[in-house]
Amino acid sequence: MSDDTLAWMNELTAEMEERRKKIEAGGGEARIARQHKLNKLTARERIEKLLDADSFVELGVFTEHLGVEMMKNQKAPGEGVVTGYGLINGRKVFVFSQDFTVLGGSLGKMHGQKISQIMDMAAKMAAPIIGLNDSAGARIQEGVDSLSGYGDVFYRNAIYSGVVPQISAILGPCAGGAVYSPAMTDFVLMAKGSSYMFITGPDVIKMVTKEEVTFEALGGADVHNKKSGVAHLEEDDDEAVLEQIRNLLVYLPQNAKEKPLRRETKDPSDRETPEVLNIVHPDQSRTYPMKDLIKTIVDDKEFLEIQPLFAKNIIIGFAHLGGQSVGIVANNPRHMAGTLNIDASDKAARFIRTCDAFNVPIVTFVDVTGFMPGVSQEHAGIIRHGAKMLYAYAEATVPKITLIVRKSYGGAYLAMNSKDMGADVVLAWPTSAVAVMGAAGAVNVIYRKEIADSKNPDETRARLVQEYKKNFDNPYWAAGRGYIDDVIDPKDTRRYLINNLDMLEHKQESRPYKKHGNIPL
């Protein structure tokens, strides 16, 4: 290479590096300082914390905005979003991270195009998509072009749903159209005190409805984790959210064609668990901590609960059994006696479908009296919402194992994955009972006339209740008809679950052709 050529190349390289430095500087030192003052990391710092060290490769570095009339004199380094790919625990992932220091992270057409292109690449490479959201919403200056940018992203959220895992972290404001993309992803995580999600902000609400509300009370992390159910997990800050994403991916495969990786464990598959008898009282009226029972049985007592603050009457989450990733659905007797209401049905159905989409076996722990009665539940559509659970379990083709711990009554018996709804294996403890309803309720219906005609109705009712319990409040009636595969010693639960999971590892199940089903949304 001649000296002239070398000098020319050095000049071009220097210009390239100068341009890159300006882009990497985002909105500049002052705006970065403000980001840090709000206890928020920058877009690039988040990627660095999320991915394995030195694994990030950036794409779309020099993308610029459309240059419409109202934007001619404004710079937007990187178009306000950093996109690329890297590794998490050695596995490839694709990521976009919105830069609030650049025009508030607002989404314009090219900003949306960058995200769309990285999503397309993730789908081609069959790897997870992780979105780090920190955006004021649509870029008003670009008008309908901005809306088009959102449409590009929403479309891909939908068509890649169930193809590769999609995870959203809300690490700042997420307003207007910006909230719909995270809502269509598989998991939404929020940082306390610094993240918000809402369609219309406090100012618009005050103007239209006269209601006064703060950002936090309207759409903060607590609101969406406890009340709306939009979010799945909340953490103290950006770093904790990013670490939780790394933890979550341990339980998921790269894509729908793969299974989750097996995890090495020194926890023996045949470990006995006699301590469960100190957790679960045989008296069906006594509550107990279902989460303690789950942790006692799973590998290394590690259980990642999902949506722990929403619809607490049902528990969902991930664990490992014999090294296999499993999704767990369980009634929670300590909240509303573990009954199924609208929120619990929605929560469980969505989780069941997520597990099925990504080949995660489902283990169901049952202790349920039924669906929640009441006018408000009926009028709000408990029939439609409860049907979602029935649909989700029936639709799922992954290995499905059900353990009946204590009671399993009425329609909730079916909704908690009975043999009739497609459970591959149903196990029960001797403490369990399967029936249309509890003994007292059944006696009041069946023997109403006999009780009314007796000289001592209370004594007659009590005698009949005891007889009913003896004959029907046990697992053997259902086991005798093939609805329960085995009644097991509680201390052997872990061994039975793992043995059956191993047996079902290569399960194949075909279904009739259809374009898609029509879940009762």
What does this structure look like?
The strands form 2 sheets. Strands 1, 2, 3, 4, 5, 6, 7 and 8 form an 8-stranded mixed β-sheet that branches. Strands 9, 10, 11, 12, 13, 14, 15 and 16 form an 8-stranded mixed β-sheet that branches. The chain folds into 3 domains: 10-249, 2-enoyl-CoA Hydratase, Chain A, domain 1, CATH 3.90.226.10; 276-436 and 474-503, 2-enoyl-CoA Hydratase, Chain A, domain 1; 439-472, no CATH class. By secondary structure, it is of the alpha/beta class. Helix 13 (342-357) links the parallel strand 11 and strand 12 (362-368). Helices cover 40% and strands 18% of the residues.
Helix content: 25-40%
- Biggest β-sheet, characterized? 8 strands, mixed
Q: What oligomerization state is this entry in?
A: single chain
Model regions low in confidence, pLDDT < 50 over at least 5 residues? none
User: DSSP helix count?
Assistant: 21
Beta content: 15-25%
Give a summary of the structure in a few sentences:
This protein has 521 residues and is of the alpha/beta class. The chain has helices spanning 3-24, 29-37, 43-50, 109-125, 144-159, 180-183, 202-209, 215-219, 221-227, 238-249, 276-279, 290-297, 342-357, 375-379, 382-395, 410-415, 439-446, 448-453, 457-472, 476-480, 493-503, and strands at 57-59, 81-88, 91-98, 129-135, 166-175, 187-191, 196-198, 233-235, 304-306, 314-321, 324-331, 362-368, 400-409, 425-428, 433-435, 486-487.
Which SSEs are present, and which pair or pack?
Layout: H1 3-24, H2 29-37, H3 43-50, E1 57-59, E2 81-88, E3 91-98, H4 109-125, E4 129-135, H5 144-159, E5 166-175, H6 180-183, E6 187-191, E7 196-198, H7 202-209, H8 215-219, H9 221-227, E8 233-235, H10 238-249, H11 276-279, H12 290-297, E9 304-306, E10 314-321, E11 324-331, H13 342-357, E12 362-368, H14 375-379, H15 382-395, E13 400-409, H16 410-415, E14 425-428, E15 433-435, H17 439-446, H18 448-453, H19 457-472, H20 476-480, E16 486-487, H21 493-503
